[in-house]
Amino acid sequence: MDPRQIIRIGDTIVHPGEKTLIELPVAGLYTHTAITLPVHVINGHNPGPRLFVSAAVHGDELNGVEIIRRLLHNKTLKRLNGSLIAIPVVNMFGLVQHSRYLPDRRDLNRSFPGSKQGPLASRLAWIFMEHIVKQCTHGIDLHTGASHRCNLPQIRANMDDYDTKELAKAFGVPVLINSNVRDGSLRGTADQHGVISLLYEAGESLRFDEQAIRIGVRGILNVMHKLNMLPLVKHKPHGRKSAGSTFTARSNVWVRASHSGIFRSLKGLGEKVNTGALLGVITDPTDMFDEGRYEVRAQASGLIIGKTNLPLVNEGDALYNIARIGETAGKSSEVEIFPQEILPV
Questions:
Q1: What is residue 278's three-state secondary structure?
Q2: How many angstroms separate the CA atoms of 189 and 34, rounded?
Q3: Torsion of CA 97, 100, 105, 106, to 10 degrees
Q4: Band of the pLDDT at 247, cuts 50, 70, 90?
Q5: Are 139 and 195 a contacting pair, CB within 8 Å?
Q6: Which pTM value belongs to this model?
Q7: Among 25, 117, 248, 322, which is least packed, fewest CB within 10 Å?
Q8: Distance CA 21, CA 190 (A)
Q9: Rounded Cα distance, 70 and 216, in Å
Q10: Cα separation, 31 vs 29, whole angstroms
Q11: Residue 193, helix vs strand vs coil
C-alpha cells in the first residue's frame, strides 16, 4: 500500500477503499454543547487527486449543504480514483443561528489561514486549513448570494491559471468570472498553498434553489471527470447544453439605488444589457401619481449575474450586479439558466 494514499484527519486514519464520517472537535457553546466539524471522507482504491468540497462557510448559505448531500449519494463514487473530502457545514455556529457569521460577528471567509490561539473564527479557519486544505490537491467551495439577493450560477476562479480555467470550464455554468481573491478568503489561502480552487455561487441565502443545486452537483461531477477521479462515460457529462452561451467576465459592477423607495425590477438573472438600459424603477410608496419616480439604468454593458429580491430599498443599496463580458460563445440575449440536460440528482 502506498502510504501517500492514506488520509489522516485528527485521530482518524482512512485507508484506500474506505469511507467514514469524522467529527472534528471545534469548540463548545456556552451551554457546554459540543460543536464539531463534520468531514465525510471517501478514499478510493486507486490513487488520484484529493478533492475537498465545502459548504456553509457562511452559515446561512444552504444550497451547498444539499449539493454535498446529493453528491455523497451518487453511485459513481463507488469507482472513485483518489479521494473526496466533503464538508457539508463548515460554519455550524452560523447554521444554527441562520446567520452568515460566527457568534463574535466575524466572517469566517475573511479569517483564513487562521491561528490555533486566535478568536473563534481564526481557530475554525486554522482547523480547516490544517486538517482539510493542506491534505488536498483541489477544492470547490460552495456559496450563494447574500440575504434577499440571488446570484446566477457562476464560477469564480483565477482564470489566468490554465489548469484552474480548464476546471472552471468543465464545471458547466453560464458564467465564469476571473475573480481576484480577497484577503483571508478560503479560496485565496488555498491557492497560496498550491491547491487549485473554484468557488461556485448560485441562488440566495436561507433558500433552496433546485436548479442551482442540480447544476452544482453535476458541476462537481464534471470536474471529477475532468480530473480522472471518475471513469469516463460514453455520453457527454451532464451540465449545460454544449450549444448554450458561456461567458467569461474579467470584472463586474454594482448598480445601486439613487433614491430610497419601492423598487420594481424589469430585468432578470442571465439577461444581457447595454449601457443605459432600463433595469427598473424606484417609486415613492406614498405617491400614487408617480411623481417621485426614478429610473434605474445600467452603468455598463454586460450580463446580470446578481440582483436584489427585496422591493424595499434605501439610497445606495445594491440592486444589480453586472458582469462585463469578455470572451463569449453564443449570441443569445439571455443565458440559458435552466437547461433541459440538468437531470434530477
A1: strand
A2: 27
A3: 140
A4: confident
A5: yes
A6: 0.91
A7: 117
A8: 23
A9: 10
A10: 5
A11: coil
